[in-house]
Specification:
The chain is of the alpha/beta class. It is built from 22 helices and 27 strands. The strands form six sheets. A seven-stranded mixed β-barrel has the order 21-22-23-24-27-26-25. It has a six-stranded mixed β-sheet with strand order 7-6-3-4-5-20. Strands 17-16-15-18-19 form a five-stranded parallel β-sheet, with helices on one face.
């Protein structure tokens, strides 16, 4: 049977189960990555499992999110992560080295390997031919401790590329086009696999941009074949030995298909406030721009920044625009400094930021009130920039740079020539010298010394909440009615104000759902303290889209949430709910969503028995009964019955 590339890699790593769409399987995980925003919780959970050395071939702990050190909290978190890394055989990436996905692509990603990361944009490494999956921190901790990951076999959506991109059209425009076609929930339960003659025209960093924003489709991951372009990229990084050719078998059949002619792609933008709210730059028109931000794990490659520098060279940023640039890695920044591109950007009036995520996750550079901000990032959820009433547009580096000069949203394909701006051709260096001064290797330790060194625990690092084993009856009060496409940013805001408290869930919980309903935390606490003993959240379609942050499950758990009832769930958040011991149920009849009210007391009788079936009946205090689909796999049912994954692991270890 002819297999897709995704299925071939999954088969190569299969430990348990059968590769059938919808089946539960366990696969071997070769590599893991964490970043500091989700990493502190992942390592607290790793410590709770009391493992020895990690079981993966490679695990890396990057520091790239919480790098603003306005208090002790972030620095304490970094020290904690560094000490855990030393204790368990994990590489530690110091702050300033770069953004985790760009660094992993440059230094460690390899075709045919599996990667599990505690960041939703881990699929970036699919651009190099990996099965790279974003997951909650606990799943990554388990992968480090056990070397495996349990998942549901996704469908494979084949995107056939033909033609070549014209000048001024970019990889960012390709993924924006795909998002327009499929929407932010179009990839849920699927792996997106790119194939066809058009793939050959895309560099690895082009592919990484497309794979990165596959997360916005809700996809499990995105994968590209490994070909001569992959080989050239690895050679530039000094890692040609890691290359091997990989592609789908001839005649492979995809579960779903989409065709994209690259020659028809034009400059696009995702308008406020969703990555799939896409239109052409020409249609949107000349809106005034206040801020432009170039960088992030989506578009901070050497090629991206060289194109921006070429556009800016000899020109000036419009006096009404603040332009900020954040390179993807120290190696890229070093090359930009060496070849003069950095000077060209600075001379034009650009502000150069640290090699970190920065503004993408609201860590600095929030725009002014009511501003229009053009960003080469991957998400433009309302308030994510740190300014609730800002309008954020997602664009390519080319569009961002030319718009920074003109001061208005500008279509480079139709307007650059009139402005006297030539399409920037970029020559790649033969070799990128990686800066190893930003990497701390773990000490070599014999088995009897594995518990050394000691773990550094600052005062802001608090124990994480644990779920409760499911009793015979689950009774809880409806504490929130939420709409469609609720993001993890909506559930647990992520900005410079709250990011320093990622290792302090009791504090974070006070801000849970503050953007949706400022009274939620107090109401949930009251329900937790009542005779009901907890709360239930009601959500719409695609509940929990966005980040992998499990704080969006842990904060509601801290406040006593026992279940979430929704029309549908985003993949990673659903897993995080289950891992935390929070029961996710799907409305059998979506019209029932509008019948539940805030304050309703809901009951699930004979809960353990119902969890073993495909249907769960939920009753209200006035006697109405509603039917819910139970989509839990057998391993997930076991986790819910135990009250969470940590509880199940501890139980099985006895």
């Amino acid at each position: 049977m002819a297999d897709t590339l995704a299925i071939k890699i999954l088969k190569d790593h299969l430990l348990e189960g059968e590769i059938t769409s919808g089946a539960a399987i366990k696969i071997k995980i070769d590599q893991t990555l964490t970043q500091d925003s989700t990493g502190t919780m992942a390592y607290l959970q790793l410590e709770a499992m009391e493992p020895g050395m990690v079981k993966t071939e490679l695990s890396v702990a990057y520091i790239d999110h919480n790098t603003l050190q306005t208090g002790f909290e972030n620095a304490d978190d970094h020290a904690f992560i560094k000490s855990v890394a030393a204790r368990h055989g994990i590489l530690f990436g110091k702050p300033g080295g770069g953004i985790c996905h760009q660094l992993h692509l440059e230094n460690y990603g390899a075709p045919g390997k599996t990667l599990l990361g505690s960041d939703s944009h881990t699929p970036t490494c699919g651009g190099i031919g990996m099965i790279a999956i974003g997951a909650g921190g606990l799943d990554v901790a388990v992968a480090m401790a056990q070397g495996s990951y349990t998942m549901t076999v996704p469908k494979v959506l084949g995107v056939e590329l033909s033609g070549e991109l014209r000048p001024w059209a970019s990889a960012k425009d390709v993924i924006l086009y795909v998002l327009k076609q499929l929407t932010v929930k179009g990839g849920v339960g699927k792996i997106v696999e790119y194939h066809g003659e058009g793939v050959k025209s895309l560099s690895v960093t082009d592919r990484a941009t497309i794979a990165n924003m596959g997360a916005e489709l809700g996809a499990t991951t995105t994968v590209f074949p490994s070909d001569e372009n992959t080989r050239a990229f690895l050679s530039q990084q000094g890692r040609e030995k890691d290359w091997r050719p990989l592609a789908a078998d001839e005649g492979a059949v995809y579960d779903e298909s989409l065709k994209v002619d690259l020659s028809q792609i034009v400059p696009l933008a995702a308008m406020p406030h969703s990555p799939d709210n896409v239109d052409t730059i020409k249609n949107i028109g000349h809106i005034k721009v206040d801020q432009v931000a170039i960088g992030s794990c989506t578009n901070a490659s050497f090629t991206d920044l060289m194109k921006a520098a070429a556009i800016l060279k000899g020109r000036s940023v419009s006096e009404g625009v603040s332009l900020v640039v954040s390179p993807g890695s120290a190696a890229i920044l070093s090359k930009l400094a060496e070849n003069g591109a950095l000077a060209a950007m600075i001379d034009a009036g650009a502000r150069i930021l640290e090699n970190t995520c920065g503004p993408c996750i609201g860590m600095g550079q929030s725009p002014k009130s009511g501003a229009v901000s053009l960003r080469t990032f991957n998400r433009n959820f309302k308030g994510r920039s740190g300014t609730l009433d800002a309008d954020v547009y997602l664009v390519s580096p080319e569009t961002a740079a030319i718009s920074a000069v003109t001061g208005v949203l500008t279509d480079p394909m139709s307007e650059a020539e009139d402005l006297g701006i030539a399409y920037p051709a970029v020559k790649l260096p033969d070799r990128f010298e990686q800066n190893r001064n930003f990497v701390v290797m773990p000490p070599a330790m014999p088995p009897e010394k594995r518990d050394m060194p000691n773990i550094e625990m600052g005062p802001n690092i608090k124990p994480f909440p644990h779920g409760e084993a499911l009793g015979q009856t689950l009774t809880a009060e409806v504490t929130l009615i939420a709409g469609d496409n609720i993001t993890t940013d909506d559930i647990m805001p992520s900005d410079s104000r709250l990011l320093p408290y990622r290792s302090n869930v009791p504090h974070l919980a006070n801000y849970c759902f503050e953007k949706i309903d400022a009274g939620f935390a107090a109401r949930a606490e009251a329900a937790k303290a009542s005779t009901h003993g907890g709360g239930i959240i009601v959500g719409g379609d695609n509940y929990g889209q966005g980040s992998s942050r499990e704080h969006a499950a842990l904060a509601p758990l801290q406040l006593g949430t026992r279940a979430v009832l929704a029309k549908s769930f985003a993949r990673i958040h659903r897993s995080n709910l289950i891992n935390s011991g929070i029961l996710p149920l799907v409305f059998r009849d979506p019209s029932d969503y509008g019948k539940l009210r805030l304050g309703d007391v809901l009951t699930i009788e004979n809960a353990p028995a119902q969890i073993e079936s495909d249907t769960v009946i939920v009753k209200t205090q006035s006697g109405e009964a509603y039917s819910f689909l139970n989509t839990l796999s057998a391993p997930e049912k076991d986790i819910i019955l135990a009250g969470g994954k940590i509880n199940a692991i501890r139980r099985d270890a006895k």
